[in-house]
Design goal:
The protein is 22% helix and 25% strand. The strands form four sheets. It has an eight-stranded mixed sheet. Strands 5-6-7-8 form a four-stranded antiparallel sheet, with no helix packed on it. Strands 1-10-9 form a three-stranded antiparallel sheet, with no helix packed on it. The structure holds FE2/S2 (inorganic) cluster and fe (ii) ion.
Length: 411
């Protein structure tokens, strides 16, 4: 249980809030590669309204939504060879926020040199566009964009699913340090829904453990019939602080990235990599697809693993009321994650860099992940391509063929 005040502190992500200040120290996916085009689009991140565009020179820009002239929205604009021109009176801004042109002002005016749009740094990596909304001062410069392994492997295929979920991002992150839900939500409840006796995940958790480490929280488990010699315990997999879960096995490795749109909405990105032994052939472009939340009757989709997770997160409320919960021993991971957020908020308040801040250029950051998940890597991979959001991937059949897995008739 948390007091209402502590719950506010944990969940508010806007500018000036303790969590908002912590989260502004990280690079966030703001879009998939296909969203950054010559047509500007509205995006929202950490409670801030923004406009993303790609100009004629290929530069991607991210500006605050309102034009500094008379506040029209800059998505009502046209991209030029350099920069974005406001649709209302034609002021033109570059990706650094400099005002390059004010067509209505006298030719000899220097007014444009004294006006700036709010601009944020953006970088492209692995099919995503990342943005940084934090401080950019000599004392607190922009950190390096972490080059996590899945984003940079050059011998893997990728696909990216995404959806906007109507709830706060913390309750989604808490799910990633809550292994017991697997056997119940995806096991018992999953089979109850299907009217089948065989659940998706049958094995019970005998033991779970969590430890804070350099990348966030490392999770370990021993399932019924397994031992501490198995990968699930010996290697485990990480919650990557502050916003990702890493899951996978046998050449399938995925990130679930939880991007706070604002206090009550989260952009969920399912980022998959497919890397069979010996590597995958080159992939021309990373496919992007939307993960649906409801079926044709308007009912929440619950007949697969991610759908079950999504409905659990959303039904906790827009912001889960933690003053009315009852935590038990099985919630140790959740308690640890809340403590970690609180500690890192304090670090930022003291002017220190929080966990997972990178200050030196690097090629790749390798993350640990068990190869032999739930006792059988290949079984897990086949389960995941069937039961996760990958079922909506436009390349699912190609992925199965890439691994030499059977391609069922639904494909
Ligand atoms: S409001 Fe943008 S140029 Fe006038
Ligand atoms: Fe789950």
């Amino acid at each position: 249980m948390l007091s209402a005040e502590k719950n506010e502190r944990l969940t508010r992500v806007g500018p000036g809030t303790p969590m908002g200040e912590l989260l502004r120290r990280y690079w966030w996916p703001i879009a998939t590669h296909d969203m950054a085009t010559r047509v500007p689009v509205k995006r929202r991140l950490l409670g801030e309204d923004l406009v993303l565009y790609r100009d004629g020179s290929g530069t991607v820009g991210l500006l605050a939504e309102q034009c500094p002239h008379r506040r029209a929205a800059l998505w009502l604009g046209c991209t030029e060879d350099v920069g974005l021109r406001c649709g209302y009176h034609g002021w033109r801004f570059d990706a650094d926020g400099r005002c390059l042109e004010q067509p209505g002002e006298p030719a000899d005016s220097t007014f444009k040199d004294r006006v700036r749009a709010t601009a944020y740094p953006v970088r492209e990596l692995g099919g995503l566009v990342f943005a940084y909304l934090g401080p950019q001062t000599p004392e607190q410069p922009v950190p390096e964009l972490p080059r996590y392994d899945l984003f940079v492997w050059d011998d893997a295929w990728r696909d990216i699913g995404h959806a906007e979920l109507p709830c706060n991002f913390v309750q989604i992150m808490e799910n990633s340090v809550d292994p017991y839900h697997v056997e119940w939500l995806h096991g018992r409840y999953g089979s109850f829904l299907r009217g089948e006796s065989l659940p998706v995940v049958t094995k019970k958790h005998v033991k779970v453990a969590f430890e804070v480490f350099e990348h966030g929280i490392l999770k370990r488990r021993v399932l019924e019939g397994h031992t501490e010699e198995d990968d699930d315990w010996k290697v485990g997999h990480p919650l990557v602080f502050p916003h990702m879960l890493r899951v996978g096995a046998a050449g399938l490795a995925t990130f679930q990235i939880r991007v706070p749109i604002d206090d009550e909405n989260t952009w969920h990105v399912w980022y998959q990599t497919y890397r069979p032994d010996g590597g995958a052939p080159p992939q021309p472009e990373v496919p992007v697809y939307e993960v649906p939340l409801k079926d044709e009757r308007g009912e929440w989709l619950r007949d697969y693993v991610d759908g079950q997770d999504i409905v659990a997160w959303i039904t906790q409320g827009r912001i889960s009321d933690r003053s009315r919960e009852h935590l038990g021993r099985s919630d140790l991971g959740v308690i640890l994650l809340r403590k970690l957020y609180a500690q890192q908020m304090e670090r930022v308040a003291r002017g220190e860099d929080p966990l997972c801040t990178y200050r030196t250029p690097h090629d790749v950051i390798d993350l640990p992940m068990e190869r032999d998940k739930f006792g059988s890597a290949v079984e897990f991979r086949q389960l995941w391509t069937r039961e996760s959001s990958i079922r909506y991937s436009p390349i699912r059949s190609e992925v199965l063929r890439l691994f030499g897995d059977p391609v069922p008739s639904w494909s």
